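Reopening: structure tokens for the shikimate-3-phosphate complex, inputs below.
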Amino acid sequence: MGAGKTTVGKVLSKRTSYDIYSLDEMITIRENATIPSIFKHKGEAYFRHKEYEVVKEVVFKQNKKILDCGGGIVEKEDSMKLLKKSSTIIWLNCSLENITSRINGDNRPLFTPNKNVITNLYKRRCTLYEKWADIRVNADQDPLKVASEILFQLQI
Ligand SMILES: Nc1ncnc2c1ncn2[C@@H]1O[C@H](COP(=O)(O)OP(=O)(O)O)[C@@H](O)[C@H]1O
Ligand SMILES: O=C(O)C1=C[C@@H](OP(=O)(O)O)[C@@H](O)[C@H](O)C1
Ligand SMILES: [Mg+2]
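Re-run output (same inputs, fresh job):
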């Protein structure tokens, strides 16, 4: 959360002309509900299943594309296996300090300003990103630079 995936994804889409699929946006439209409302009324497991369904639907399309995932996609192994099989997984590695300053007071149900809780979530997620990512970029810099670093690493 707050690493800049959605922001950088849009920059990459403009620069490459690849289509972009924002999973959070697709889920919101399909469920006709906001993400906080889905979490509140249906729970996280339901949301993760919806994420999985959207991934399954888009990854094997033949067009060149960028998937703007939610940061919690790593919580569901089935989703990650599909991504690993089909895609290059990019980790936008961002300090917890920057994440916290970017999204404080935002509309993300799993974000909390409680330092212990968010530090534990951050550390656990970092282990998962480390496990699954093909490429890691420094996301503690301007989004345009993050996008350039990704294109450089992918040689696009
Ligand atoms: N590299 C960056 N530097 C500073 N602010 C950023 C950066 N990337 C994103 N932001 C800002 O942080 C917030 C969260 O960005 P977003 O792209 O939605 O992150 P994510 O999709 O990873 O949760 C937005 O207000 C966005 O404008
Ligand atoms: O980290 C998470 O568990 C989540 C991240 C959010 O997306 P962003 O990473 O774009 O904030 C969104 O999918 C949902 O609030 C859950
Ligand atoms: Mg996002």
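Residues 1, 5-6, 24, 35, 70-72, 108-110 surround shikimate-3-phosphate (ligand 2) (CB under 6 Å). The domain at 5-146 is CATH 3.40.50.300 (Rossmann fold). Marking as resolved unless the reporter disagrees.
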